[in-house]
Amino acid sequence: MDSTLLDILPEFLELAFFAVGSLSLSIGGALLERSALLTVQGGESALGGWVALIGLLAFYFAYLMATEKFIPKLTALR
Protein backbone atom coordinates (compact mmCIF):
# COMPACT_ATOMS: atom_id res chain seq x y z
CA MET A 1 0.00 0.00 0.00
CA ASP A 2 1.03 3.54 -0.52
CA SER A 3 2.45 5.28 2.55
CA THR A 4 0.11 8.26 2.17
CA LEU A 5 -2.86 5.92 2.23
CA LEU A 6 -1.54 4.32 5.40
CA ASP A 7 -1.09 7.77 6.93
CA ILE A 8 -4.66 8.81 6.23
CA LEU A 9 -6.32 5.48 7.12
CA PRO A 10 -6.48 6.07 10.92
CA GLU A 11 -8.02 9.50 10.39
CA PHE A 12 -10.58 8.04 8.00
CA LEU A 13 -11.45 5.29 10.47
CA GLU A 14 -11.86 7.88 13.23
CA LEU A 15 -14.13 9.92 10.96
CA ALA A 16 -16.19 6.82 10.16
CA PHE A 17 -16.44 5.99 13.88
CA PHE A 18 -17.80 9.45 14.70
CA ALA A 19 -20.26 9.30 11.80
CA VAL A 20 -21.58 5.88 12.80
CA GLY A 21 -21.69 6.88 16.46
CA SER A 22 -23.67 10.03 15.76
CA LEU A 23 -26.06 8.17 13.49
CA SER A 24 -26.52 5.39 16.06
CA LEU A 25 -27.26 7.87 18.83
CA SER A 26 -29.78 9.67 16.61
CA ILE A 27 -31.58 6.45 15.75
CA GLY A 28 -31.51 5.37 19.38
CA GLY A 29 -32.92 8.72 20.44
CA ALA A 30 -35.75 8.44 17.93
CA LEU A 31 -36.60 4.94 19.13
CA LEU A 32 -36.54 6.09 22.75
CA GLU A 33 -38.81 9.03 21.97
CA ARG A 34 -41.26 6.70 20.23
CA SER A 35 -41.18 4.38 23.22
CA ALA A 36 -41.77 7.34 25.53
CA LEU A 37 -44.79 8.43 23.52
CA LEU A 38 -46.27 4.93 23.60
CA THR A 39 -45.61 4.68 27.33
CA VAL A 40 -47.36 7.98 28.02
CA GLN A 41 -50.28 6.93 25.83
CA GLY A 42 -50.47 3.72 27.86
CA GLY A 43 -51.02 5.72 31.02
CA GLU A 44 -47.59 5.68 32.66
CA SER A 45 -46.67 9.33 32.42
CA ALA A 46 -43.76 9.29 34.91
CA LEU A 47 -42.00 6.43 33.14
CA GLY A 48 -42.75 7.98 29.75
CA GLY A 49 -41.26 11.28 30.87
CA TRP A 50 -38.13 9.53 32.08
CA VAL A 51 -37.72 7.65 28.79
CA ALA A 52 -38.30 10.92 26.90
CA LEU A 53 -35.52 12.56 28.91
CA ILE A 54 -33.13 9.73 28.05
CA GLY A 55 -34.13 10.07 24.38
CA LEU A 56 -33.38 13.79 24.47
CA LEU A 57 -29.98 13.06 26.00
CA ALA A 58 -29.25 10.64 23.16
CA PHE A 59 -30.16 13.36 20.65
CA TYR A 60 -27.97 15.85 22.49
CA PHE A 61 -24.94 13.55 22.48
CA ALA A 62 -25.52 12.76 18.80
CA TYR A 63 -25.54 16.49 18.06
CA LEU A 64 -22.38 17.03 20.11
CA MET A 65 -20.58 14.16 18.41
CA ALA A 66 -21.56 15.46 14.98
CA THR A 67 -20.65 19.10 15.61
CA GLU A 68 -17.66 18.76 17.94
CA LYS A 69 -15.97 15.68 16.49
CA PHE A 70 -17.23 14.78 13.01
CA ILE A 71 -17.34 18.17 11.28
CA PRO A 72 -13.89 19.34 12.50
CA LYS A 73 -12.34 15.99 11.49
CA LEU A 74 -14.02 16.19 8.10
CA THR A 75 -12.71 19.70 7.45
CA ALA A 76 -9.23 18.73 8.66
CA LEU A 77 -9.23 15.71 6.36
CA ARG A 78 -9.91 17.89 3.34
Attribute tags:
single chain, 78 residues, mainly alpha, 92% helix, rod-shaped, membrane, DUF8151 domain-containing protein, transmembrane helix
Largest sheet: none
Give the overall shape, derived from the CA principal axes: rod-shaped
Helices, by number, come to: 2
Distance between the termini: 21 Å
Computed CA radius of gyration, to the nearest angstrom: 18 Å
Query: Low-confidence runs (pLDDT<50, min 5 residues)?
Result: none
Strand content: under 5%
- The average pLDDT is 93
Structural class call reads mainly alpha
Order of helices and strands: HH
Helix content range = over 70%
Query: Can you count the beta strands?
Result: 0
Keywords: Membrane, Transmembrane, Transmembrane helix
Pfam families: DUF8151 (PF26478)
InterPro entries: DUF8151
Transmembrane segments: 12-32, 47-66
Describe this protein's structure.
This protein is rod-shaped. It has a domain at 30-78. The mean pLDDT is 93. Helices cover 92% and strands 0% of the residues. It has helices at residues 3-41, 45-77. Pfam families: DUF8151 (PF26478).
In short:
Residues 1-77 form the DUF8151 domain. The protein has helices at residues 3-41, 45-77. Helix 1 (3-41) runs antiparallel to helix 2.
How do the helices and strands line up, and which of them pair or pack?
Layout: H1 3-41, H2 45-77
Helix pairs in contact: 1-2
